[in-house]
Amino acid sequence: MSDELDLHDTRLLEDVVIHGVYLDLFKAKIDQRKEEIRVRACVGRDPRPAAFVKMVEKLTKWSGQQADALQTLKEMIEKSDSKVEAERTSAAASQKKKPKSYSSTKPPHHVKSSRKGKEARTSAH
To answer: Which InterPro entries does this UniProt record tie to the protein (predicted)?
Structure first.
C-alpha cells in the first residue's frame, strides 16, 4: 500500500488509513507489529443509485447548517457594529459636554516664573 500511494513514512500512511476508516471508506485493522493493514470491507468506486439519495440528504443538511452558521455570523457582525457605533456616539456626546480648558495658556499655580529664567531662555535661542 505504501508503494501504491507513494507514502514511505509509516506514520503518514497510518494517518491516511485512520482518516479513511473515520470517513467510512473502508473497515480495516492496523497491526503495527506485523506492519500490515487488514481491510475487511471498502466502499465501491461506483456508488449505487440509493447512495445518491443519502448523498443529497447529507449535502442538503450540510448546506442548511452552513446557511445557519452564515446567518449567525451576520447577526454577530451587526451586533458588533451596533455596539461600536453606540460607543462612538457616547464618546462624541461626552466630548461635547466637557468644558473647554484654557489652563494650557497659563502656568499652573504652583510654578513660579522668574525673570532670570525668561532671560536665560531668550538668550539661549
So the answer is: COPS7/eIF3m (IPR045237)
